[in-house]
Amino acid sequence: MQEEPRDFPTIVEALKSPWTYFIFAILAMWTALENMHHLHFTLPLAFALSLMIKIDIKHMILPDSINLFLFALGLVAHTALYGNFMFSILGALFGFGLFFFIFYLTYKIKGEPSMGFGDVKFITALGAWVGFMGIPLILVWASFLAGIFIIFKTLVQKHYKNVPFAYGPFLAIAGWLSFHYTYQSWAVILDIRQQIIGLFS
Description:
It contains 9 helices and no strands. It is mainly α.
């Protein structure tokens, strides 16, 4: 049985990969266009997410050390930007509780979880960034993006094959979108909800 790569070697490998810096460049330009005033928070977030995406795609793991860094910085960033430390803590707790429930439920039903426990830790760290209201958005965004990926992969392969895939990149992108567009995302969701209610009223 092959030994699972440890945090440090996989991080060093990702630091040497040009793909990490390509992803980071995209996110860095994105955040610079969105808000130049918060780069001291958003650039470290962008780089950590770039590492997570590269490592999870290659090794199907999400290093604890990066999760811990994201969690600690998320507490500071959310408190500094929104002035509410408790919302950051609640976001982390809600993220952990929700995804651990999914992890445990799918394990009980299928005999194996639908995601790795690293994903549960990752959503906990992202929860510190987005707060309580951002966690449902991460779930919606990640499910939507993963769904598109599965449909595209099925069309390319001309058949559906139920095999594990890295969910971390979808969580990373979902966390990024939820952090930058919390209010806009909720406005769209509530508008769609209102339109659906209107169809049946």
